[in-house]
Amino acid sequence: MPLHACLLQLIKRVQLKRKEVDDVLGGEEAWANVQKTDVTCPKCTYHQAYFMEIQIRSADEPATLFFKCVQCAAQWREG
Ligand SMILES: [Zn+2]
């Protein structure tokens, strides 16, 4: 596969992932008035991030934690 095709696929995958998160959370507005917690950002290593706990699978499975860095606005999830 040519290199640029690989890159395009990678970019597409990242964008889809981001969209998936936005769909679950409802976009930027969802982060208004949420709590902050002490956690290290994987991108800039800042020590605080906003967090939300959301049940995205069946009710008997553990909820997924979503984080958004206070400093660089990077988003990630756990669970
Ligand atoms: Zn960060």
TrEMBL record:
A molecular-function term among this protein's GO annotations: nucleic acid binding
SUPFAM superfamilies for the chain: Zinc beta-ribbon
Binding site for Zn(2+): 41, 44, 69, 72
Family: Belongs to the archaeal RpoM/eukaryotic RPA12/RPB9/RPC11 RNA polymerase family.
Pfam families associated with the record: Zn_ribbon_TFIIS
GO biological process assignments: termination of RNA polymerase III transcription
Highest taxon listed in the record's lineage: Eukaryota
Protein's name according to its UniProt entry: DNA-directed RNA polymerase III subunit RPC10
Record bears the keyword Chloroplast: no
Predominant location category: nucleus
GO annotation, cellular component aspect: RNA polymerase III complex
Compartment(s): Nucleus
Alphabetical list of CDD domains matching this protein: Zn-ribbon_RPC11 (cd10509)
Keywords: DNA-directed RNA polymerase, Metal-binding, Nucleus, Transcription, Zinc, Zinc-finger
PANTHER family per UniProt: DNA-DIRECTED RNA POLYMERASE, DNA-DIRECTED RNA POLYMERASE III SUBUNIT RPC10
Domain TFIIS-type, residue spans: 37-77
Natural source organism: Auxenochlorella protothecoides
